[in-house]
Amino acid sequence: MKRTYTKIAPERVKENRTFYKNRVRTAFICWCAYEGYLDGVLTPQEVKKAKRGQLPKDLNIHHRMPLSGKDEGVNEFSNLTIIHKDTHEYINRYVFSPQLKPYINEPYGTTFEIDIPEYDFVDVNGIKKERAKKAMMYDKYNGR
């Protein structure tokens, strides 16, 4: 999906990131767990931890619109999704980075269109797929 990206100053990105880490991250995880978005994706023990704001180490929260590209509403739940860490790395490296690189020397406030992958609050299929892939690799490595 095409969205307007507005390059914002690093100080503001830092403020948004700090607010996310201190206030939003845990609340979003808890909300997803209590709303049932993690049921059937995580084990019952992992869901229990998520209700306390903890995600398994193989999962990350992804900002659909990057912190550096939106000022207002960047930390709203509608801009967040829980995805597998490998998916998160792929998006940042191969989707966002190539689109943002041409604008690296542009002034703050510059706007342009970028493609943003769409996800639900929890990338159920992506998480299950990555976990199954890791389990197969583990079994193969351990001779199972």
Describe the structure.
This protein is α+β, with helices and mostly antiparallel strands and 144 residues long. 46% of the residues lie in helices and 14% in strands. The protein starts with a strand and ends with a helix. The model has no long low-confidence stretch (mean pLDDT 94).
Spatial sequence of strands, sheet with the most strands: 1-4
Spell the H/E element sequence: EHHEEHEH
Described by the principal axes of the CA atoms, the overall outline is globular
Number of continuous helical runs? 4
Distance between the termini: 41 Å
Amount of beta strand: 5-15%
Unreliable spans are none
Q: Average pLDDT across residues?
A: 94
Tally the beta strands: 4
- How many strands, which pairing sense, and closed or not: the largest β-sheet? 2 strands, antiparallel
Helix content: 40-55%
**Class of secondary structure makeup:** alpha+beta
Oligomerization status of the protein chains: single chain
Radius of gyration: 17 Å
Describe the secondary structure blueprint for this structure.
Layout: E1 2-6, H1 10-34, H2 44-50, E2 59-63, E3 80-84, H3 85-100, E4 111-115, H4 124-141
Antiparallel strand pairs: 1-4, 2-3
